[in-house]
Amino acid sequence: MINCRKSPLQENQRAVTSTEIMQAGLKAFHGRFIHILCVCFITAVMITGCEQALNNSEQASLHDIHAELTPTTINIGEPARLEVRAYHGAEERALIPNPGRGREIVVRRREDHTKEIDEELSATVSAFQLTSFRIGSHEISSEEVRFIDAGAEKEITRPFPEIFLEVESSVDEEDSEYRDIHPALSWPQAITRRTAILTAAAILVITASIIIIRFLKKPRSILQTDPPVPPDEAAIRALRRLMSRNWIEHGNVEPFYVELSAIVRRYIEERFDMRAAEQTTEEFIREASASHILDTEHRKLVQDFLAQADLVKFARHRPSPEDMKSAYKSAERLILETRAGREELSS
């Protein structure tokens, strides 16, 4: 039989080999761990540095003004962006002037906002979109930035940052040389006097022919003219139209009495040939009622009607629907009883 048992020397070599492997593994793990720690440390330092840089970028003193123009050189009509930051206290506000100035500095758009830097410091930011239509070097603004506290009791001014916009021509130097003008165009031959007279005569003949033809198509004669509407009939029609508006039912008191007074005035003017354009409707009706063109009963109707109209117009009186209907009946009775060709009723 073959003896497969290992010798003590072989077992010792095996143990030594396992130990070396474990030590090598520990060394590799330790090196990798150190590498990870170094990477984490470097990353933390970089993040902290970036945050500090960002914080340093916002570091500013009270009432400082920062301005940034990009780009500083443009061609005519091209846009440029101006950002102005005014740092002020939390209880203050900053007024940044508008840099617009004729054709030198043209402001196309402006945006304003305020952001808080810390508990005691804020910044008002104004962003402008600028352009220019004049070649040269133009200062953005020579005005001042104003800082006003909440109570408007104190005001501090600071000069606008000195910043310039360079404007260049969009035409190349090769194309900037003067060119000769185009040759003169031939002007149409002048119209002779005879041609002008004939043209004017033709226009007059055509115009007169059109007018005559239209006139002949619509002949005018006394027989075809409608007879004038009698004053009483016109007044009665106006009263019917007034009632059709339903102002009594809707409570439109003032326009009802204004229209009713106008109807009575027109009737008296046309019926008795009385004209007084400089008088108001109430003055005219009152004078007519005081004259002898109306009998006693009709004068009484007009005076009662005027009294109610005066209350509505001057005393803001609101009569009942029955009173409004009564005024309407009085006006209707006055027209019917005083119309031409009818005998007056005995009082």
SSE map:
Blueprint: H1 8-57, E1 65-70, E2 73-75, E3 80-89, E4 92-95, E5 106-116, E6 121-131, E7 136-139, E8 144-149, E9 155-159, E10 164-168, H2 193-217, H3 231-244, H4 247-250, H5 253-272, H6 281-290, H7 296-314, H8 321-338
Parallel strand pairs: 2-10
Antiparallel strand pairs: 1-3, 3-6, 4-8, 5-6, 7-10, 8-9
Helix pairs in contact: 3-5, 3-8, 5-6, 5-7, 5-8, 6-7, 7-8
What are the key terms here?
single chain; 347 residues; alpha+beta; Immunoglobulin-like; four-stranded antiparallel sheet; three-stranded mixed sheet; 8 helices; 10 strands; elongated; disordered C terminus
Enumerate the strands of the largest sheet in spatial order, edge to edge or round the barrel: 1-3-6-5
SSE pattern, N- to C-terminal = HEEEEEEEEEEHHHHHHH
Low-confidence stretches: 53-57, 343-347
Number of helices: 8
> What does the overall shape look like?
elongated
Tell how many strands the DSSP assignment holds. 10
Q: Please give the radius of gyration in angstroms.
A: 51 Å
Helix content: 40-55%
Largest sheet, in brief, is: 4 strands, antiparallel
- Termini separation: 171 Å
Mean pLDDT level: 78
Structural class: alpha+beta
Percent strand: 15-25%
Explain this structure.
With 347 residues, this protein is an alpha+beta fold. Among the domains are: 65-168, Sandwich (Immunoglobulin-like), CATH 2.60.40; 231-338. It has helices at 8-57, 193-217, 231-244, 247-250, 253-272, 281-290, 296-314, 321-338; strands spanning 65-70, 73-75, 80-89, 92-95, 106-116, 121-131, 136-139, 144-149, 155-159, 164-168. Helix 5 packs across helix 6, helix 5 runs antiparallel to helix 7 (296-314) and helix 6 (281-290) packs antiparallel against helix 7 (296-314). The longest helix is centred in the N-terminal third of the chain and has 50 residues, at 8-57. The N and C termini lie far apart (171 Å).
